[in-house]
Each structure stands twice: as structure tokens, then as C-alpha cells.
Amino acid sequence: MTFYHRTFRHPTGIPVTEEDIAASACDTAIFVIARQAGEGNDRVDEKGDFRLDDIEYENLKTLSIAYKNFIVVINAGGVIDVSFLDEFNISALVYFVQGGEEGGNAFADVMSGKTGFSGRLATSWAYKFEDIPSNSTYSYLGGDKFNQEYNEGIYVGYRYFDSFGVKPRFAFGFGLSYTEFEICSETIRTEKGAVTVAAEVKNIGKASGKEVVQLYASVPFGDGGSELKRLVGFAKTKELQPGESEKVTVKVPFDLLSVYSPEKAAWILRAGEYVLRIGNSSDNTRPVAVLELGAESILEQCENVCPPQHDIDEIFPPKRAEENLSGLPRFKIDGCLSEAVRHDYSEPTEEIDALTASMNAEELATLLVGGGTSAKNLQVAALGASGTTTPLLYDSLGIPNIILSDGSAGLNLTSQVVQLPDGSYKAARVPETLEAYRRYLFGFSRIAFMSQMAEPSDGEVHYQYATAWPCSQLVAQTFDLD
Asked: What is the pLDDT of residue 172?
């Protein structure tokens, strides 16, 4: 969160003492490292953000010595430096992310073994910050955070690490579980507009679990270069018991193998060889088939409606090493391509709804901008909410405001409100709300919120229902398709 011009950071913890350890009377400890990103501000390569602060470091050192089993949990929406794994005795590292209102229950289930870990990383984790291609140009590090050039182009995450030969600490798609799996018996079939790969997955471990089969493709390098491999599809198994197998299929439309040509303003398939690779992370794959295309083909004809205002000096990958692909099945796909799609960029002729059509430019702008965080005379109000659409169009157009949540995983700090006799609302002075304010509000904000509270006996108490969904990073890491 941002207060005025400064980014607020929650405290990262208090020192663990010998008395704390003695009072635990157990041989297992769980330590949580948490981070909260700021709104309107970038993360920074500093202690307490990307790097551990001194208290966290000392706590990890102390706990890794004191406990036989030491589990570190990272509760953050993005990566942090985990070089402490090279220094301390860490039994397990769990990337929890931010799980919403059921996150605690889900964490207990996987930690206790009630269910198994089946997530896979949706982000590559570098060994060190300097391994990231934008390490000297990102935000404030580039000297001008208001004018950013994305010089890495498409080479971000695993596309960079794989293509430039930089080994990540944890690769995209990586994830452990309580068991192990074997992926074998692949069959490949081409059809009009797509290729389908089927594989058999067997649980060869001693516990039940789920595996994520990931399919990558290497497209022809061409004159413009290309990443070493790209994820083009995946499939997740059901819960497999030890010794149980399941056949999964991954269908890949050919447009996922295309590259964009600015010169042609089109998505094209380059002539050459397309290598399909199967595995369970971006750095653990093996080739299973080669698709051959004799001539370049346009799949989608576009227009460059937003060309760059100036040239951008993008990084370019090195040439790929020669690879022995003999013995792999080969499929010619020239006859499998669909007719090119040609997009029409002319002005749309569809009619818009009557209400919108009747609004003038000022009314449309008012609707677009919204009411912000301090709008008055709301038709619908919810204490603790941080945003709303505009209330200014209700009298003229009958459009009431609606309350917006503060992000999908936001907290409902004001769960109970008091409706006063005059019809206004104030936060209820109840233990749940007081505790929420104490934990999550500091300084002026806490004083301001607490000054607007009312006793439950002052009016009628209402409960404000709010749902905190898991954040998008956590949802992506499930690799669940349903």
C-alpha cells in the first residue's frame, strides 16, 4: 500500500529467542517469510523486500541450528532472494503465495499430508538478482523509472534462462510432491490446424499425488531469433495412487508455434523444424517429435496499428547448439495448416447500447474515471472498501455506484458495521474489527479509521460479507484447467 509518496512495508518479524525455542518442546519449526507489494510503486532490490532483512536472516540461522526439521514458507506474490538455502540447513521450502480466506486450511492440508503438493512454479527463480536480464534497467535501476524500455523483448523468465544458458535456481514448471512420476509411451498425431501429443503417466512412488505433464516446442531460429523452447500446452493427472497410471493428451494449435513478423505485420510459421519436448519443468524435458514445414506460412494477417515510437535495442540470443534428433518421429505439416485469418481494422459498425449512446463525452468520462476512494453521496456504501464507481450519474441516468474490492485477495478489515438512526454507517467497535485495525493499519490511518467507529448498541449491526480469492500467481501455479 502507498501512503502519500512513501511505500509502507510491514515489519518482517521479531527475533526468535532461546526461550522461544525451549518453550516449543519439539523438533520441527515452520518459519514464514512474508512480503506485501506496494500500489503504485515497484519492488526494490533491498533488505526487507527482495532480500532478507537482518532479523529474518538471524532467525533462519538460529532455527536451522535448533531444529531437526526446519520448513521455510514464503508467503509473497513474487520471488525473493533465497540464497539462504546455500547457507542453512533447510528441510523444505514452500512457496505459499497468498491463498485468500481458505489459504490457511489449504496449507494445513498439504503440510499434514491430508492432500499432496501438486502445484508447479509459474515463475523462474534466479540464483541471484544479477541473473535477471533487466537487473540494471528495471525501474529505478535504469535511471528513469517513468520511461522504461523492455529491452529483454520476449526473453523473460524461462525463455531467457534457457535461451541464454543461465541456470535458474528453480525452473518454470518445477514442483515437488510426496511421490515421484514417470512420463512415457508418447504418441503424436497431426490434424488440420493442430498436433496432439498423448503420454502415459505412472506414479512410481509410495504416496498418492498428481503430476503436470508439460509440452514445450522449439521453433525455427530464423533471422529474427527465437527462444530455445516455449510452453505450448500441459495436462494435469487425476490423483494417482502408487503404481497407478493415466493417459493424458495435450492438443497444440499451430498458432502457438507462430512468431510475429513486424515487417509483414503477421503471425507466421517459419519454414524449418519444430521440435516438441515433453517433461515436468522447463529445464527437464526431452524431445519426442519433429514437425517439418517446407515453406513459411502466414496464420494471421494483422496491421501494425501501434508501432514503436523509436527503435528499441533488444537483447538477442546466441545461436543454438546442434542437437541429435535422429530416431525421432517426423511429421510434415504443410498440408495441415488452416486458411490464414485476416483481421479487419476498419471502424466498427455494431450498435452500442442505447444508454451508452445517449451519454455525452463528459458523462462517459465520469463513468470511466469512477468515484475513487473518497466519493460522497454514494448510493451503495461499504466501510473499509477502497474503491467505487461514480455516484454522480444516478440522478441523471439512473446509474448507481457499485463497490469494488481491493484486489482479489484483499482483506475485509471492517466486517461489521453499525447502521445509525440517521441512516449513516460506521464501523462496529467489536473485537474482530479492532484486531484487524491493530494488525493492518498504522499511524494516521489507524487513528482515522478508529475515530469513525460506533458501539454496537448505537444502532443496528450488519455483517459485510467479503470473499478473498487466492491471488492470480497461486491460481496459475495449480496448473488446473477446470
From this structure: 98
Q: Where are the domains of the chain?
A: 177-307+326-346, 359-463
> How many Å apart are CA 479 and CA 234, to the nearest integer?
8
The distance from CA 291 to its chain's CA centroid, rounded to whole angstroms, is: 31
**Angle formed at CA 296 by CA 291 and CA 299, multiple of 5 degrees:** 90
Please tell me the distance from the alpha carbon of residue 6 to that of residue 481, in angstroms, as a whole number. 40
**Which strands form 460-463's sheet, in the order they lie side by side?**
453-454, 425-428, 416-419, 460-463
**Cβ atoms 80, 35 nearer than 8 A:** yes
The structure's pTM equals: 0.84
Q: What is the pLDDT of residues 246-275, one digit of tens each?
A: 999 999 999 999 999 999 999 999 999 999
Average pLDDT over residues 33-44: 76
Helix residue ranges, H only, 288-352: none
Q: What is the pLDDT of residues 204-213, one digit of tens each?
A: 999 999 999 9
Q: What is the mean pLDDT of residues 83-88?
A: 98
Closest CA to 13 of 82, 83, 60: 60
Cα dist from 310 to 154, 225, 305, 306, 313, whole Å: 18, 21, 15, 12, 10
3-class secondary structure per residue, 362-390 = HHHHHHHHCCECCCCCCCCCCCCCCEECC
CATH number of 177-307+326-346, picked from 3.90.1150.10, 3.40.50.150, 1.10.600.10, 2.60.40.10: 2.60.40.10
Task: Give the whole-angstrom CA distance, residue 33 versus residue 410.
Answer: 19
CA contacts within 13 A on the Cβ side of 272: 15
Where are the alpha helices (H) located in 15-102, listed in sequence order?
18-24, 54-66
Mean pLDDT over residues 291-320, rounded?
Answer: 94
In single-letter form, the type of residue at position 5 comes to H
Question: Residue 463 is placed in which grid cell?
Answer: 455483517
Please name the amino acid found at residue 13: G
Whose CA is closest to 62, among 83, 88, 81? 88
Q: pLDDT per residue over 212-228, tens digit each?
A: 999 999 999 999 999 99
| Unique residue bearing C-alpha cell 533462519 | 60
Torsion angle in degrees (nearest 10) through CA of 430, 432, 434, 439 = 180
Pull the grid cell for residue 337: 495448416
Return the closest-CA partner of residue 91 out of 13, 177, 28, 3.
28
Q: How far apart are CA 210 and CA 244, in angstroms?
A: 11
Q: What cell was used for 230?
A: 516455449
